[in-house]
Fold this protein.
Amino acid sequence: MTSFTSGGVDLLVDNRRRISLARVTHDLAPRYIAELRSDGSILLRPARTALLAELTVLEKPETQAAISEAFGGDPNLVYERPKRKRSS
């Protein structure tokens, strides 16, 4: 992880108004929920999201039963996709 000063890490906005989170950490989540606070600060929280269509399908009992069967009947098993290796 990057060393922090008392004020944090200085991030420069590019001409498209983007910043690189890699300056803060290399252990990045693929998605974030951004919250603009009243003091002007921006809080980024790692998020796991799903499309409405995915949630609709997953709510169906037959889908839940098929998933449970595919995981050997254990509904608590979760598959996490392996992290991609960064190219040099």
Q: What stands out?
A: Strands lie at 32-36, 42-46. The two ends are 18 Å apart (CA to CA).
